[in-house]
Amino acid sequence: QVQLVESGGGSVQPGGSLTLSCAASGSIRSINTMGWHRRAPGKQREFVAHIRSDGGTNYSRSVKGRFTISRDNAKNTVYLQMNSLKPEDTAVYYCNGDISVWGTSMYDYWGRGTQVTVSS
Q1: By the 8 A CB rule, do 38 and 92 touch?
Q2: In the predicted model, what is the mean pLDDT of residues 99-103?
């Protein structure tokens, strides 16, 4: 069993910054890709960014150049630094991880989400 817990959400004005964190816990054997998705009001969940175990990253076009994903493998934690925030970034942000626990194969685990609101 694995638990992912997001933190760092909140409300900011356009142009502001916010950093999200997501810590994975449990009987973890290994973690491959970790990442972030978001669901805006009335919209489907969309990909934001992910980071591979070797540090390679990928970003959606809408956030590239503004957001930075990183990870601390010793803490089983992934971060999302969000700069130059726009109202359209308003969404619930979900953390996920491609994680294996002892005795199982890789599985995609998800956190409960954290709200980010960008408004004047």
Answers
A1: yes
A2: 89
Q: Are 114 and 8 in contact (CB under 8 A)?
A: yes
pLDDT(104) > 90: no
CA pair distance 33, 96, nearest whole angstrom: 8
Structure tokens at 102: 């002892």
Who contacts 14 (Cβ-Cβ below 8 Å, separation ≥6)? 85, 86, 87, 118, 119, 120
Note every long-range contact of 85-88, with CB atoms under 8 Å and residues 24 or more positions apart, other chains counting. Answer: 85/12, 85/14, 85/15, 85/16, 85/17, 85/18, 85/116, 85/118, 86/14, 86/118, 87/14, 87/118, 87/119, 87/120, 88/40, 88/62, 88/118
Q: How confident is the model at residue 6 (pLDDT cuts 50, 70, 90)?
A: very high
Cα 33–chain centre separation? 11
